[in-house]
Amino acid sequence: MLYPVLNAKRKRYSLDGIWNFKQGEYAPGVDARLSAEDLMVVPSSFNDVAVESEKRYFIGDNWYERTFRVPSFESDEELVLRFGSVTHQARVYVNGQLLGEHIGGFTPFEVRIPEELTTGKELLISVCANNILDHTTLPVGNYSEEVLPDGSVKKKVSENFDFFNYAGIQRPVQLLVLPKARIEDIVVTYNVHENDATVKVAVENTANGGNATVTILDENGEVVAKGEAGAELEIANVRRWEVLDAYLYTAKVELFAGEELVDEYEELFGVRTIRVEKGQFLVNDKPVYFKGFGKHEDSYVNGRGFNEAVNLMDLNLMKNMGANSYRTAHYPYSEEMMRLSDRMGFLVIDEVPAVGLFANFTAALSMNRGESKPIKTWEYYETMENHKRALKELVARDKNHACVVLWSVANEPDGAGEGADKYFEPLVKYVKELDPQNRPTTVVNIMMATPERDLISPLIDVLCLNRYYGWYVNHGDIEGAREGLRKELLKWQEKYPDKPIIMTEYGADTLPGYHSNWDVPYTEEYQERFHQMSHEVFDELENFVGEHVWNFADFETNSYALIRIQGNHKGLFTRNRNPKSIVKLFRNRWNAIPNYHYKK
Fold first, then answer.
1. Annotated active-site positions, please?
2. Rounded to an integer, what is the distance from CA 321 to the centroid of its chain?
3. What is the pLDDT of residues 338-362, one digit of tens each?
């Protein structure tokens, strides 16, 4: 699916803004239209905009509705509604007619408006955003229903993950006017030969008998190659896309029906190579060191709702610290974030929303209902179909992005549970088959899946570990944490000497302004000692190739347990992006570590 653009052959109109809103039962085309009594902003998470507690925590159908005027269009064009995301399941109606449905809350989808509905001057669009999560969905949740004294049923979700279940129409909505004969998809692949590159731009289109041409332009707009779509085009003296030194070419695709130009599209792409070899992660044949963060799409008022200013500020703060990478924990981030990362040269570990796949951990303990026998994760969950769907849609969306260098198939699953290898083997194989650029894969490992017990690590290319020695283990004991961390990392390196290791999560909750002369958790001093110890251990290992702090900034959670003081506070920045004292430590460390050749 192509990102929406405006050009001579394609028009786009924003449908963002204020929509009418209702939670609960509603039948478009049957019930009276939604009134303006309740309003909601698109895009945003309804949870933080709706002030009342019962609205913030509502589980079920969330209805959005608005009208729009039909723009003029020609007989060889059609109207398409495009949604950046609707979390977690969507149904789209126009004038009361169901036009499309989508499962998955973090990838885009489109709905074509039939021509017979466009004869009037105004259309009514109704969207249902359902936020129920259960043992079949990604993310995983524990769904239940409670019968209230008045006989009504209250729906509940106990999340199996440690971040707030923000939902709604969280990314932009656009009305597109597109040629009926149009470019549907573009796939960019290439081979690099020393200073030159052979580029192939494959094009899918709806034109019967149409032919497509490709012109490749450099950043100055100069033509460097030209030919038919699907042909091998040579770029001499190719400028590579490098870490924090991005260079993007443009593939201009033109679709013809006979001699007539019926559609055109420009796809940006970078030329770079990726390889995993002998315990190193190589970008352009140079060993790279990942410096950066696990983070969230999370900000005040917007919740998980799209905010381009927050995206750019986050990347600017990261770059200022010397960071060069991040992971899209624990779901695909917006397309706009991927495009920014392409332009700024960030490395991205791209992750599907496969989080909570552990039936006897954290929130999932409620599933056991007092039974003495633990639930077997891979017998209990029925997520395979949605897992494959999520992988397919993520690769389809992000396949051409130079910034994406590693696919993350899941975060912290029950990797030591019986059947984990059988569950993940087809998924790892599937994502490799999907990706035209053949990027490496990972499954982010949870602490209980130790080198002796883990069943997934033989299947993947890069070991990504989430470890909290000094926080959830050896709490407050820095030297005990050092010993435990070093011991485990050496075991991983010994077991897999040819696989690079990235620490994708490590951190300690810290309240700004809380101080102590001693190793007291939650103080800013303890956060510094925790990370200093971690870095000293990291630097001892030869094939340790990256560190992603958990987290970039404090973020909202569903849990209000003793370990969660109005959210997760492991951020190096507060939720409103003010720095904690530790930012100086990281700025000094990361700016002193080169992007390439840190580990010889």
1. 412, 505
2. 22
3. 999 999 999 999 999 999 999 877 5
